[in-house]
Specification:
Layout lengths: L8 H28 L4 H10 L4 H8 L6 H12 L1 H8 L1 H11 L2 H12 L8 E4 L15 E5 L4 E12 L6 E7 L9 E7 L5 E2 L14 E12 L7 H12 L8 H34 L1 E2 L2 E2 L4 H29 L8 H24 L10 H8 L9 H13 L5
Parallel strand pairs: 1-4
Antiparallel strand pairs: 2-3, 3-7, 4-5, 6-7, 8-9
Length: 403
């Protein structure tokens, strides 16, 4: 499959389907859930009934050999609203974690449980970041110790900023199983959130994405069966043995998950940026000052021209990275990180420009660009900060192990 920007008939159908749902179901609810900061369960249920949320659609999209389906779907949902978009797409990170590290049996057993059904919608959480580690997975402190007598793993530690934390039914947890090996001594586990010893006392109140639940999760000697280890113990033991011998061990579990989702996160950012651009463009055409629409002023029209250009450039990087991932092309220059870095910057900048074009009213909550600006900032932070993306890219292009 060669890289092409031409959308197939299936891509166009998916885009139009997602756009209609975003326009008719997500947007009318956006302000309400931004204000209440509650999980939009009714919208999730509508998405499940429509076929836009669930195991089946996610499996079908992953079979797209062009890699374009996920960015297309994600951009449209986040065009509807960033917070509700993440409430719909957030489970995908946990599902991707299972798919990246699990056996076929584990994938079949657990991924459907992440989503539930149209009549009983569930969400899942991916637990990687920690209060003292952040984006540096090599300094993870959550541990998983194997109890051979009972064939159980005992997990202890704290995970921070978990999307769907506190409301997830299924959790994918990264933990250290062999201290001293850094990221090579880590493994991933899948478990139910009601397992004894798990606590999530309160959700975090965030700057943006209010409709998406975020919380810290605490693990106090949480016992899970040996089967909870994604990939199985035989595979883990072989990996640890290679690491101790100084040989390559393959991709670290958390980073393998991020590699598959990074272009999709970039598409989220593009959706928010595009929504702000389109709103500002329409406003500039309608807003009359001194007898003419403000878009006739170069200062305004040039801002909009730059916004359109930057959004398109970011989308091209995302689409290329998504194709490379699907085609299993090596990210020799960290093209996945490039796409996420560019899209995040564009989202923050474009939403800020949209507020500027609207002027004083753009700074109020009476207009959606203020909410879009708050939602956009996260794309400079989560799944690797702007600076982490720069570090990854710099290492790739230089061949130097920068710190």
């Amino acid at each position: 499959m060669t890289f092409s920007l031409a959308l197939t008939d299936d891509h166009i159908t998916l885009r139009d389907w997602a756009h209609e749902f975003a326009e008719k179901t997500i947007r009318p609810a956006a302000a309400e859930y931004d204000e209440s900061e509650e999980t939009p369960w009714p919208v999730l249920q509508e998405a499940a009934k429509a076929g836009l949320y669930g195991f089946e659609i996610m499996s079908n999209l992953r079979e797209d050999e062009t890699g374009q389906s996920f960015p297309i779907l994600t951009e449209e949902l986040f065009w509807g609203d960033g917070g509700i978009g993440l409430a719909i797409m957030g489970t995908g990170l946990a599902a991707a974690g299972i798919a990246a590290a699990g056996t076929l049996e584990q994938i079949i057993e657990w991924v459907p449980q992440c989503y539930g059904s149209a009549d009983d919608v569930k969400v899942a959480g991916f637990c990687s970041s920690e209060p003292e580690a952040g984006s540096d997975v090599a300094n993870m402190r959550t541990t998983a110790k194997y109890d051979e007598a009972s064939d159980e793993w005992v997990i202890s530690g704290q995970k921070a900023w978990v999307t769907n934390g506190g409301i997830a039914d299924v959790l994918v947890v990264q933990a250290v199983v062999e201290p001293g090996l850094g990221s090579r001594g880590q493994a991933a586990f899948v478990l139910k959130s009601d397992t004894a010893g798990i606590a999530s006392p309160k959700k975090l109140r965030k700057h943006g994405l209010h409709a998406s639940n975020t919380a810290d999760i605490f693990f106090d000697d949480v016992r899970v069966p040996g089967s909870a280890l994604l990939g199985g113990k035989e595979k883990l033991d072989a990996k640890i043995a290679r690491a101790k011998e100084g040989r390559k061990t393959g991709a670290q579990a958390a980073m393998a998950t991020f590699e598959t989702t990074r272009p999709t996160v970039g598409a989220m950012a593009i959706g928010v940026a595009r929504a702000a651009y389109e709103y500002a463009l329409d406003y500039a055409k309608d807003r009359v000052v001194f007898g003419k629409p403000i878009i006739e002023n170069q200062a305004i029209s040039f801002m909009l021209a730059d916004m359109a250009t930057e959004i398109d450039a970011a989308r091209l990087l995302v689409r290329r990275a998504a194709w490379m991932g699907a085609a299993k092309q090596p990210f020799a220059a960290a093209e996945g990180s490039m796409s996420k870095l560019k899209a995040g910057r564009v989202a923050v900048w474009s939403t800020e420009r949209a507020i500027q074009i609207l002027g004083g009213v753009g700074y109020t909550r009476e207009y959606p660009v203020e909410r879009m600006h708050r939602d956009a900032k996260i794309f400079d932070i989560f799944e690797g900060t702007e600076q982490i993306q720069q570090l990854v890219i710099a290492r790739a292009i230089s061949g130097v192990r920068l710190t």
